UniProtKB/TrEMBL annotation:
This is HTH tetR-type domain-containing protein. It comes from the Bacteria. Keywords: DNA-binding, Repressor. Signal peptide: none annotated. Residues 6-66 form the HTH tetR-type domain. Residues 29-48 bind DNA. It comes from Bacillus sonorensis. InterPro entries: DNA-bd_HTH_TetR-type_CS (IPR023772), Homeodomain-like_sf (IPR009057), HTH-type_Tx_Regulator (IPR050624), HTH_TetR (IPR001647).
Amino acid sequence: MKQRKENRREEILEAGLEVFSEKGYYNTTTALIAEKAGISQPYIFKFFKTKEELFAAALDRAFDRILQTFKNVEARPEQIVAKMIEAYEELSVSHPHEIALQVIGLSVTEESIRNCTKAGLSRIRSYTLERFQSANVPNAEEEVTTFLARGILCNISYFLDLPEMIHNETK
């Protein structure tokens, strides 16, 4: 029974990720998420008290997956930055809804979601800095700032379908 309940929660989170990434936070309703998950709307509230709580959980899931992706990177110290970029690019392809959710999370003004976004970005920054420092990346602090700034720019470029922000390409 507990396993089934946990599976249902996961299905709601995945449906939430998809719907939020397509419609944004403010245009998404729990009814749309319920429809996507194939359940009744009231059933969502057995797992999440509010839409805000569901969004924060989905956003947390996205940040956790990024962090785990970075932790799974195996590379020689001189390759760590390039390998982490490569891993993030692969994650962007395999989990595009989570990339979109990060961009959306930056624009939501509700305090709990702002706090979730801050906490997620802080965790990623702390881990990345620790990893760069242990790999003896020169100017690790600056490299982390550049790494994260480029990642956020990539997310925005992907979200807007504007690849020329990153590459000298036009559609």
